[in-house]
Structure formats: structure tokens, C-alpha cells
Amino acid sequence: MEIFLRLLDIFVRAIASIVCPLLDKYVYPPKAERTLIPPIRNCLLTLSVQELRSRLRSRQLTSVVLVGAYIERIESVNAHLNAIVESRFSAALEEAAKADDLIASCESPADVEKLFEERPLLGLPVTVKESCALGGMTFAVGSLSRKEVKAQADGEPVKRLRSAGAIPLLISATPEYCFSIETDTLLNGRCLNPYDFERTPGGSSGGEGSLNGAGASLFGIGSDIGGSIRIPSLYCGVFGHKPSGGVVSTKGHFPNSTDSNIEHYLVEGPITRFAEDLNDLLKVMAGKDKSAKLRLDKPVQLNQIKVHYALGFEGVNGLMHQPVDEDIRNAICRATTHLSTLGLEVKRAKLSNLKNSMEVALSSIAKQDGMDYLLEAECSAESSGLVRKILWEILKSLGGKSIYTTNALIFELMRQTNAFMSRSRVNKYLEEGHYLIGEFRDLLGDNGVLLFPTLNLPAPRHKWSIFSLWGVDYTLIFNVLGLPVTHVPIGLNERGLPIGFSVVAAPNQDRLCLRMAVELERAFGGWKPPTPHDIDN
Predict the structure, then answer these.
(1) Amidase domain spans which residues (predicted)?
(2) Catalytic residue among 172, 180, 204, 502
(3) pLDDT band at 346 (very low <50, low <70, confident <90, very high)
(4) Is residue 204 flagged as an active site residue?
């Protein structure tokens, strides 16, 4: 355990315990209405990939109508959310018309079935996080210094989705270089949470979380190196899956790394309102060989899954973290009670082996020398001089005088200072992380899952995500370990904010997370819209 890091953690916890109640009581009193998101009126927007694919296959629905419905929804909500960086609606409608022509050209039901076997997402719209490279579209990733950059080609996961017939609608907002859990940039402005405009949708897949939470995306592509799929999924009340390390290619992603092991940490995965779609989406994004390795086509018997759970970190480590929100703890307990009634074996996990969770987690970030740097032009400078430069830029950013955002600069500072640890200590904690992989593999085996808080709190208010940032080891630790994790929404709290938790499995046991998500969606209802539907008859 690192004394300086832990003193910082204790300091942040102390400030949070004073500031947060004052914010709630005096600065941001509860409001009768926290969102102006219009209700969903088109029933097509309430249907999953599986349901829509069935209608397209039977020719009860056209892709042009479906894509048009989502474009209309996006335009109605984005004025409130600022979640889009660039759209391609005209091109999407043209591609939808071609998909309809392809389906219409089939001479028999057997031909239609064969077509959808080859292209299982044919005619279905998708939204794409800016860092995931959609050819010809913006690739600035929230940075003023990259504002003219365009993606030269599709990233590998985007390419696979398009080959499966999916139709990209837009590029969604990210923080600068994806280096934040709040999506607020000098280039694109602030992205808002559909459940409360005073709160962040999270990051770095913040635009995806916002659009999906608002019912304006059928599904989206996110990326995750420290919680960037799961945190927006928590804050915006949707499902998000971080695959096992190395399962989904990150070719074409920015930022990326020359480190040969980067795909163990950095992954791309699906974000959606519908748990039943996660398996099919992961199958396409992973590709034939990797999805076969994950056995995604093999049914999972729910009653064979062993359930472990924890309500947060334990012991001294737990005391040094901010307490987990009571509603999140209760959600885990409600889920374990439900699973027990189904006859599943449920057991509280002892996670004393995570006593150095923060140090192990941050060591993985400190070790990423090969990843793109925010201050790329200065990265060859002498180390102490560069640290001074970053500190100066942080001060300038606080006064609105820097071309970089504060959170991205803080992330850069953590990398340049080895997360305030010596290199030898970083290597020690990395070795501890390798040991932990084996421990989790032994704990969970090939039929076990762990229910664990995604983060300690629901969506924070804009500019106050710094308090949650110091609990990022809740998510980052599972990137270090390469474990698959699905965030599962479990309703709204009394303030109308989404709550939920993570389902974790052993490496390459993604199908267990996905099966558990389907059951918990069935039991607790999954995504809850920010505004009740008002379906047109």
C-alpha cells in the first residue's frame, strides 16, 4: 500500500463527506423535474435487436423506416444532450434502402434466412464512439489539437459490424483522448445525462451512454481501459459489456499503444438497453474464432451458475474508499435474494486479496509508455520539466486558459509520475496483478460470477466527478485482470438516477456475465426510460 496515494484518497474522501451534503442541500436542491427529454412515441424504439431482426426478416418492417425512426429520435433528444459529434443520416438512409433491396431480392424464405445468417445485423442502426474509428468521419477524440483529423478507415470492430449489415448513424462524444470519466471538452462542449441535465453521463463512452439512456440508439460501440463502458452504463441506466482481455480487436482505436499487451487492458464492447442483445453483438465484434473460443453459441444453464457477491472493498482498503451508496448495496442484495430463490448457490466473497486494489490498478496506467500522450510534442522533454509543464497546464485549465481539459491533464500527470510511485513499486504491483488473475480464476472457475459495485455512487454533478475518479479501481482493477464484466441496471433511486452493479466472471467466461444480465433484466426490468413512454397508436 502506497502512503502518498492513500493520503490523497483519504483527503478526497474527507472533502467529499463535507462538500457533497452541502451541494445537495444548498447549491443543487431537489427539483420536481430534472429532465426535459421527450418521451418515446414510436414503438419501434422499444424493441431489441432480436425483435427488430425478426420483423426485417419477415418483411414486416423496412430498414428505411427503422433508421428513420432512430434519426427522428436522435434529433429530438440531442438538442438537450449534446451527445453527437458528427452525423451521417443521409448516407445511413441510403444504406438502409440498399439493405431493403437486398432483402426484397430474396426469392424464398430460405434465401432470407441464409442472408441473415451471413449478415445478422442487416439493416439495423448503430452509433459509434468517436475513438473507435469510422472511416471518413471525425477522429478528433475531443481534442482541439486533433480537430481536423478524420479516420482513414474503419476500426476493426466497426468493420465487423458493418460487414454484418449494421448501419452507422453518427459519431458520439468522448472526453479529450478518452482521459476522463466526464464527457466535457473544449472542442465539443459538455454532454449531459438524460436523467438529470445537471449530471454527467460519464466517460469515456459518455455520448454512447447518453444516447442509449435516452432511447436514441439501438446499440452503440464503446471502448474501455478503466471503466469507460461500464461507468456511462451505470450513470445512464443501460447495459454495457467489457469483454475479456484480447477478445475484441482494438485495431483503429485512438488512443492506442505500441505495447503488445495493450488488448489485455483496452477493449471495445457493446452498450445497449437490451440484455438479450449483448451475446449477438459480442459475437459479431469478436469475430468467428474468438466467439467460438468464448463458446457464445453454447447455452448457459442458469441454475448451474455459482454466485459470489461483495458490497465493496474490505478491511483497511474499504475504509480508505468512499462508502458505496446504500441504493447500490441494496440492489446487489436484492439480486442475490432473487437468485437464491431460483435455487442458485449464493455466497458472500472474501476479497482480502484486493487490499492493494488502487495500487495494482494505477500501475497498469503508469506502465503504458507506448500509449499516445496528450502533450505529445513535449514527451521527449526531461521528466521533471515535463511534470512541471503538466502542473502548469492544470493550473491554466482551472482558469480556462489551457487548450487541454483538466481531467485529461490529471490522467497525463498520473502516467508521467508513475501514479506517484517508484518504477520498482509499479513492477511489484503489476506482478501482484498477475497473481490476482489466478486467484480470480480459482474463485470463479468456469461456472461462477461475482456481483460487485460498478462504482460507489450514481452519476455525479458536472465538475464534481473528481470524487468518483478516486474510486476508479472499482472498474480499472478488472481491466488489469482481463476479466469480462457486464454492468446491469437495476432501476432508479429516489432522485430518479439509475443504479446498478457489475457481474464479473473468469477470463473468457463472458457468456456467464451475459446470461446473468438476461436473468436480472427479466427480474428487475432492465432499462427504465428517463421519461415514461407515450406511444402513438
Answers:
(1) 66-514
(2) 204
(3) very high
(4) yes
